Amino acid sequence: MKSMAGFQRMTGMTFTMVVVLLLALSSTSCKGMSENPGAERAGSDNRSTAASGSGATAMMPTFELVSAMDGSVVSSEQYRGQLLLVTFFATWCSPCLEEIPSLKALHGQLGPRGFSVIALSMDMEGRSVVKKLVEKSGINYPVLMADNKVDRGFGGVTGLPSAFLIDRRGVIVRRYIGYVSHAILERDIEELLAADGGEKAEDR
User: Fold this and answer.
1) In 3-state terms, what secondary structure has residue 28?
2) Cα torsion 118, 161, 88, 151: sign
3) Please, are residues 40 and 27 in contact by the beta-carbon 8 Å criterion?
4) What does the alpha-carbon distance between residue 97 and residue 109 come to, in Å, rounded to a whole number?
5) Higher per-residue pLDDT: 105 or 200
6) What domains lie within the chain, and their CATH numbers?
7) What average pLDDT score do residues 80-84 get?
8) Residue 60 and residue 40: Cα distance in Å, rounded?
9) What's the average model confidence in pLDDT over 112-133?
């Protein structure tokens, strides 16, 4: 009986550890594409990786997507020559929502130097839901409705938020999976701006 009780205690402890680990992993990103209003709040940075592949240069795919605000068609050609942070998100994804203030600040601060945030919504309910979020949050950067083609073009998005830092040549230089802090994004963007000969924010 004692051995059985000990086994049950060990099993309970193992189960608890697994639950805690899963909660920690889910807190920084929303896994999967199905709507999940109960997603956990983001707590820390997730993964940031250089986007260099096995020899081939990864280029940003071209796209023509519908604006969440007015339904107009926006082409990737409109952003040729700009440094971009393209981020996939959804209105039901808590970590995505937590990133909005940082993205607004970066777009406003670095926009005059040839930088832009472009948000691509993965929401399935249509642009009306996304438009409400844009208006409520006072989003100052372009928000477009993603389609299957642009999803595939970026390699298939399996978790939200997922973001891609793209240089002025259209090369994807960095990929971020999950919530990323303002400090990390600002550092990486400033490095690219400096490499292009742009002045840093503190030098202005």
Assistant:
1) coil
2) positive
3) yes
4) 19
5) 105
6) 2-203 (3.40.30.10)
7) 97
8) 30
9) 97
